[in-house]
Amino acid sequence: MGCVILGVIALVAVAGALVTALVGALLSWVLGPTAFRPGAAGAALVTTALVLVLFAVVAQRGIRRFSQPMDNLIDAASRIEKGDYSAQVPESGPPELTSVARAFNAMSTRLKASDEQRRSFLADVAHELRTPLSVIRGQAEAIADGVYPGDADHVMPILDATRALEVLVEDLRTLVLTEAGSLVLNREHVEPGALVQDVLASFETQSEAFGVSMASAIDSTVPMVDVDPARLRSALANVVSNAIRHTPAGGSIRLEVHNTGEQVGITVQDTGEGIAPDILPRVFQRFVKGPGSTGSGLGLAITHDIITAHGGTIDIQSTVGSGTAVHITLPPAI
């Protein structure tokens, strides 16, 4: 841009000299050769040159006022093209260029945040995949080397790890679909009480194994909801599964279906260990889980996305040592 400015100044100087020569020739022709003496011509040339220099200086400052912000934008755009999303430009100059610089900085900030989330997501996925893969490899190698017999007891850890991988892959698929806005909901009118009873029945064996009692309280006046039963059942299963894993033996879990204003409410209340205050605000984020948790940290994130896709809300209240309550609301079927 600086070379362009110097070129413009040079062109102005040349043009000034030509104009001065032409003016001198014209005056000599009109007034006669004696009317426009060499001294006068010199004075006119100097005056014209000074005016043109002054004009060039003013023009340079005006061009520089526009060229510097443009140079900054070009440099920053080049850095972003190379993957440096931290590039920012000064928000200065004319109002139009200031607006462009502000929009550019906002764009680069979003790109940087998106890139950081992508890197964090890949790292978390790799971590979650590593554990079941290690189990599968370790058990398979031990059986192959004759360390363990190939009986049901030693094959079972391989099957469990395989199921964990299947669940993780399906969870990741659901997350991708919800984030892309492509989650398909096969809606139908469903009785929320019947859906809750189905979920309870599916966890009966697991709750007994953990020594946790389960109960329900269903309001018969609750209207039907227009939902995808498979998706909603999966969302509730994530909540109940978390409650069972984090409730000590002798504890209890209670599922309620009730009216909440004009909405249908579903509450899952447990007497478990509760959620730490530093984790509670982030429980719906991907891969967030407490110390010692055996889950993937995706269950509540998926539940949140499924409930939101149905036009509902989900909220969690928890006290360490007292238990956790998950409150879900859904719009009634029309």
Fold and architecture overview:
This protein is of the alpha+beta class and 334 residues long. The protein has 3 domains: 2-84; 120-179, Helix Hairpins (Orthogonal Bundle); 188-330, 2-Layer Sandwich (Heat Shock Protein 90). Helix content is 59%, strand content 13%. The protein contains 8 helices and 7 strands, in the order ααααβααββαββαββ. It has helices spanning 2-31, 38-81, 95-144, 152-179, 192-202, 204-210, 229-245, 299-309, and strands spanning 188-190, 213-218, 225-227, 252-260, 263-270, 313-319, 323-330. A 5-stranded mixed beta sheet has the order 2-4-5-7-6, with helices on one face. The longest helix has 50 residues, at 95-144. It is extended and about 105 Å long. The model has no long low-confidence stretch (mean pLDDT 82).
Care to give the gist of this entry?
The protein has helices at 2-31, 38-81, 95-144, 152-179, 192-202, 204-210, 229-245, 299-309, and strands spanning 188-190, 213-218, 225-227, 252-260, 263-270, 313-319, 323-330. With 334 residues, the chain is of the alpha+beta class.
